[in-house]
Specification:
By secondary structure, the protein is of the alpha/beta class. Helix content is 51%, strand content 18%. The chain has eight helices and seven strands. A hairpin with a 2-residue loop joins strand 4 and strand 5. Helix 3 runs parallel beside helix 5. Bound molecules: thymidine-5'-diphosphate. The site of thymidine-5'-diphosphate has 12 residues, from helix 4.
Length: 220
Amino acid sequence: MTTSGLFISFEGIDGAGKSTHIEGLAHAFRAQGRVVSITREPGGTPLAERLRTLVLNEPMDAMTEALLVFAARRDHVQNVIWPALGRGEVILCDRFTDSTFAYQGGGRGFDWQVLSVLEQWVQGTSVVRQGSEAIQVLQPELTIWFDLPAPVAAGRLVGARIPDKFESQPVAFFEQVAAGYAKRLEADPSRFVRIDSDQAPEVVWRDVVHAMQNKGLLPW
Ligand code: TYD
């Protein structure tokens, strides 16, 4: 079992049902004696939470959205994620950069390459490797993708609460978001675990725990 800092992100279209499983994992890691923080994006710092309110509620073009979520991420990474990992803690993050590729890239059709450049700027630190300088880009050690057909997720959201800007998008938007997630998984398969979330919550939870055990992150 690792005792160094551990960064896990949770992804999926709106309505995929991440929250209860994030809480459950926090509990499981605390039972192992780990210090755990649950955080979220956009958000996780006072400044980033203010940017979240804008992104989720104000109409804006896709580039503005991308720049604001990356600005929020920069503040969050610098002030919360890097320091916590430096202290050897567990960070459970409700959405991270895969959401930007999925929503702004897939859903809104914003340029994937530009997002990759922003990702390198915002999450990069320069390191010296074999005498020359290189950029090391922060990524979660593990990303759990709660995958659910878009029509099923839409059905779950109906009447659940007042929808924000993204939640009120049509099913076709979420099909494109899901395609964005699939593209990210394809580019970095070892980081991802895809969980079939079109199952009863207790079955989804069992799959989440198995995935953690398979990765050596929780005991059998
Ligand atoms: P969500 O995480 O679903 O929170 P809640 O359960 O409180 O509604 O909402 C965040 C929304 O922000 C979600 O619709 C996805 C969107 N989002 C982006 O569009 N880009 C991003 O980079 C991130 C992190 C989120």
